[in-house]
Amino acid sequence: MNIVETRNLSKYYTFDSGLRVEALRGINVKIEEGDFVSFMGPSGSGKSTLLNIVGCLDQPTSGDVFIEGNEVDYRNSSSLVRLHRQTIGFVFQAFNLISTMNAMENVCYPLYFSGVSRSRQKQRATELLGLVGLGDRMHHLPSELSGGEQQRVAVARALANSPKLILADEPTGNLDSDTGNKITDLMRKINREQGVSFLVTTHDPEMARIADRVIRLKDGKITV
Length: 224
Hints:
- The chain is of the alpha/beta class.
- It contains 7 helices and 10 strands.
- The protein has one domain: 3-Layer(aba) Sandwich (Rossmann fold).
- Helices cover 35% and strands 28% of the residues.
- The chain has a 6-stranded mixed sheet with strand order 6-7-8-3-9-10, with helices on both faces.
- The longest helix is centred in the last third of the chain and has 18 residues, at 177-194.
- The radius of gyration is 17 Å and the shape is globular.
- InterPro entries: AAA+_ATPase, ABC_transporter-like_ATP-bd, ABC_transporter-like_CS, ABC_transpr_LolD-like, MacB-like_ATP-bd, P-loop_NTPase.
């Protein structure tokens, strides 16, 4: 079964000057459940725009997106909220942790909005921080963690609601190569052991090397 499918997906931006920028042009892609797929391409190729549309953070100008076989209705805000709470997890280049919350509290945060009890939140966060190798750092603030540790917290947070799909936008972009490789290995391990599908935008050749498939974009089109 496909976890994600796009059909003739396009995204245009029109400016007051009348200039129109074509960020995506007729993208057709199918991602099967359990796949680890890397989107690669130069800056401005459309890969982050594609990820944002699949993640329902943006909407297409035309075309359709299907998640688990169901067409995404970008006009239905409650449906989008359910997708974010139940199906899709996010990992960002800049980590996007809440600076005033420690590691455990950051992982608990999405569970709070899903109505999970406080005791279960702590139990789940403890499990996940142990999974990413931070069982001894759960009470540290982001400012007390290295970049690699912060990204591990971000991965744990993305897994909090047991999503079937994780979208990662340049997850190693702010890390040195050794730390980036460890994050890459961690995500691949989670993919293989838990069957979570990963869609990753990257410039990192190591991330591309370990992927099941690499999809290359240029000027808003798939080239390979």
